[in-house]
Amino acid sequence: MLIGVDLVAAAPTDPQHVNVGGGELIVVDVTDPTDPAITARAEGLTSTHAVACVDGARCRYACSAGNSGSGTFSVFDLRDLDAPVELDGDRRTEGLQAFPSPTAGHKWNFDAAGVGTHTGFDGASMWSTRKPGRPRLLGTTGAAGAGEDPALEGWNDFILHNSFRPHAKRFKPNRKPSLKRGNVLLVTEEDYEQTDCSLAGFFQTWWVKRLNGKPGSIVPLDKVELSDLGTYPLPVGAFCSSHWFDYRPGGLVAVGFYGGGTQILDVSDPRETTSHASAVWGASEVWDAMWVPVYKNGKQTQRRTSIVYAIDLLRGLDVYAVDVTGHGAGSSMRLASSVAVPQRLGGSATPLALVGAAVVMVLGVGRLRRRPTPA
Question: What distance in Å separates the CA atoms of residue 125 and residue 104, rounded to the nearest whole number?
Fold first, then answer.
């Protein structure tokens, strides 16, 4: 297992090593889940707020979130898990250098075609990983993705958070946008500081027209916020940005909207995203929502069940049964079971306090990392 150190790290099994400031990758052996052990560490030049394997099945290389200020990210060589190292992004310059990215830095998502999408403060960029140790830029979301196109306001007021491209292997350039053609990029824009739920963090679809490195290759299609979906009662004064999401083959997306609950969106027409079902609670903070995979012979498949797990910082883990055959808003979404936060944490108030403090710290760092507003 890989752990990226975002701010601070200290392990009771390794008391001599304390990290303050982040920028570190930790390798943990979880072969025995009852006795996890840190086996190796690698320092990085850039933020390891999130770290992702280029190839999830083998994980020989991994990319870091990166730094928005310097526009850089790190690539780690994991071929020797006992001695991971950061690779040099510029061999012509003396000393170890990070790799440049126009959209650093929050999250890397790698699709079935081996293309990596790097989302961050200045939009999203897509990269070839045929040579995983030296990713090559294929295209970006341009001024719209950076929130700097006056004709396309609101496409990025803070950060493009994470992404997914369905049917990526079917991609061919210059075809009309369609999920089945592999040329639609699904993205969440996070803007947790915005309390107006008509503006605070949209779910978006983008048309990947071509991947040839030229401008205008990835363009906007549609974006929706809670007020567009009509599923949230409070228009202002709430913590209601979109956050992590998960795609179900066929066109349904489960999205965590923090205080805006768990939203099931229909993106089968990428030009017109609609509400399929939703679950909203009075005291809730949904960080992530995911479809439970279908397993065959003990192995995970690409198929998904109709069960959604919602990870709620206040409520705990909610399990929903979703009517995936229904059409349009109002389709059934039933709470099947729920594990409350105090129950999950053994009834102790101390862990909750630590979680709350961590959230405050993360939000504060987010404010510091926000890119400067142009004069």
Answer: 9
